[in-house]
Design goal:
Blueprint (H helix, E strand, L loop, with lengths): L4 H13 L10 H9 L6 E3 L3 E3 L10 H12 L3 H21 L4 H14 L4 E6 L2 E6 L8 E5 L3 H11 L3 E6 L5 H12 L3 E8 L1 H6 L8 E6 L11 E5 L3 E5 L14 E5 L1 H16 L2
Length: 280
């Protein structure tokens, strides 16, 4: 979510001081709690006011504190997350302070009036609200590198998968990783596998076709050009890649693996996965 300076200033007043009708109001500690939900580690005391990293210049007023934090998270997914936390918390107060359901509509309308010029809106989805709009900012890539205990790291990511797991590895003979994929398949996830169609996978691998959508890549040409990729895309959000094949032997080699969390990057790997399928 990316808001203009003028909009941030209006939003700061709305969050720090309420709508003016007394239906919702956040104390200093409550404001700190709201921003804590998206990663800030601030504190509030009557004597020192708002205290936290990069909060310099003496005691901050409510508006100064909110303005500082909104500026820090502007042009990022964090602002979207904060807005939805704020809306939920404010609506709880409004519900406690009034018996008229129309007050909720007035609150949302007031908030939409502030952000609409930036092409955003607050939309009701079932029993909650979300921010709707088009974001063009680049989300940072969260990356972790591993050189030991790689199998367990892969297992942890598989266990957390919610929708899809697409695996493209040259050789896949690890029974434990195979069993983890079977478990996720029984939960209803879409599992797809691409491997080389060679003696190693035929002799020591598994009957993937009995369980998953499977593609076996033939060795090609005089020099046996092979599908040598080693990556996995999970939920179009996470990429696992590196030198590590999903084999029993790989556990005893000197290998490396990276886990990257970024939607755009994951989509790039997913497109490559689809390209490989279309070559067969």
């Amino acid at each position: 979510m990316n808001l203009k300076v003028y909009t941030l200033d209006k939003l700061k007043d709305f969050i720090a001081c309420g709508k003016g009708d007394g239906l919702f109001y956040f104390s200093g500690p409550q404001l700190v709690k709201l921003f804590e939900s998206i990663g800030f580690e601030d504190m509030y005391s009557m004597s020192k006011g708002f205290v936290g990293n990069e909060l310099y210049g003496g005691k901050k007023s409510r508006k100064e504190y909110v303005a500082n934090r909104l500026k820090k998270i502007n042009n990022s997914k964090k602002l979207t997350e904060f807005m939805e936390v704020f809306i939920n918390a404010a609506l709880i107060q409004i519900d406690q302070n009034t018996i008229e359901g129309s007050e909720e509509e007035v609150f949302i309308a007031s908030l939409n009036k502030i952000i609409k010029s930036n092409s955003y809106s607050i939309e009701k989805i079932k029993d909650g609200y979300c921010v709707s709009g088009y974001d063009t900012y680049e989300e940072p890539v969260e990356l972790k590198a591993y050189f030991e205990d790689i199998q367990n790291q892969i297992i942890e990511e598989i266990k957390k998968a919610k929708f899809t797991i697409w695996v493209a590895v040259a050789w896949f003979t690890d029974q434990i990783l195979f069993n983890e994929l079977i478990k996720k398949k029984t939960e209803g996830l879409n599992i797809q596998v691409i491997v080389i169609d060679d003696d190693t996978n035929r002799r020591y691998g598994f009957r993937f076709e009995d369980h998953f959508e499977t593609y076996r890549f033939p060795e090609q040409g005089m020099f046996k050009n092979i599908m040598h990729n080693k990556f996995c895309v999970i939920d179009l959000e996470i990429v696992i890649s590196g030198s590590y094949n999903w084999t029993k032997k790989a556990q005893y080699n000197h290998e490396s693996m990276e886990i990257k969390r970024n939607r755009k990057l994951a989509e790039t790997y997913a497109k490559k996965f689809i390209e490989l399928k279309n070559l067969l």
